[in-house]
Amino acid sequence: MPGRAAHPFICTLVKFEQPLALLGLWYLTSRLLTLTLSVLGGLRCYWLSQLFPRCNLRDFGRWAIVVIEEGTLSVSYAEELARRGLDLQLIGTTSDLAILNDFCRYLQDTYRVTARVLICGSDQGDQTLVGCLERKIEELESVGFLVNQMQRRPAPGSHINASDCQISAEIRSLTWTATLSKLVLRKMAAQGHCGVIVNISDPSGDYPHCFQAVHSASCAFMDRFSRSLAWEVACGRIIVQSLVPDEVDEAAHAQCNLLTIKSSVLARHAVNTLPCGRSRGYWLFAVRGFFAGCVPVWLRRYWGCYRRASCQCKCKYKCLE
């Protein structure tokens, strides 16, 4: 009986053998074409950009406005722009003005550029502060760069236990990014020449992250906002890049291997990838992102649970010490 029942099914497969073969060939060809285009795009973004880097970034403008978030890529990115001859206007997300002033003096003494603190404070959502910032941007001679930095990725934790300050900081960072982009875009359009806007987040927005709900959604917003804005201003010769590198271990700054990348190396490679609308900053991060996209969603959920348990164990160990 089972053999008789299977016989009509086999006959049906034989009848549609040629259409099924064509369908399989079309699927295989499309996947191979997608993979080939991804490899070629990666070579153009991460290999050719290192062989033929842009020589003079001051062609975009004299000033670079950089949002500084402690412990993130923004610090090394600002230093790389200074190394390439751009004058800097720094925006601090904390109220510690002394740290920003020390960083400005370091940039001035090391790279012989002008570095100033544009504003510094945690009350960035205040409309009076936004108006003051708009006047200061209008007074600048020529703005070529704007670098926005997302909040640093927090330790995994339940959304129920998330503090109001943490949620407000994530939302304020997104509001600040949108407001700054609008002000600088208006200035760049009035200047009549090209410019660059770089929005730095992390791969948490590529897919939902359990125990990092707010940060994952914020990174997804930053990425989509950057890519949408890039299409909007494409005719205006303004480059908008979504930079989504993996988190750099600042404690391992003295080594650079397949597991850890120095923030200075990442910043140098990231600046060279400016023509790309979306970049991981470094070729190794791009390879990681490609293979991470092949991981099933259910396995990612268990990985998030594992990361949370690992962080809790580390915290308990530090408390015991």
From TrEMBL:
<dbReference type="InterPro" id="IPR036291">
    <property type="entry name" value="NAD(P)-bd_dom_sf"/>
</dbReference>
<dbReference type="GO" id="GO:0005739">
    <property type="term" value="C:mitochondrion"/>
</dbReference>
<dbReference type="InterPro" id="IPR002347">
    <property type="entry name" value="SDR_fam"/>
</dbReference>
<keyword id="KW-0521">NADP</keyword>
<keyword id="KW-0496">Mitochondrion</keyword>
<dbReference type="Pfam" id="PF00106">
    <property type="entry name" value="adh_short"/>
</dbReference>
<protein>
    <submittedName>
        <fullName>Inactive hydroxysteroid dehydrogenase-like protein 1</fullName>
    </submittedName>
</protein>
<dbReference type="InterPro" id="IPR052149">
    <property type="entry name" value="17-beta-HSD3-like"/>
</dbReference>
<comment type="similarity">
    <text>Belongs to the short-chain dehydrogenases/reductases (SDR) family. 17-beta-HSD 3 subfamily.</text>
</comment>
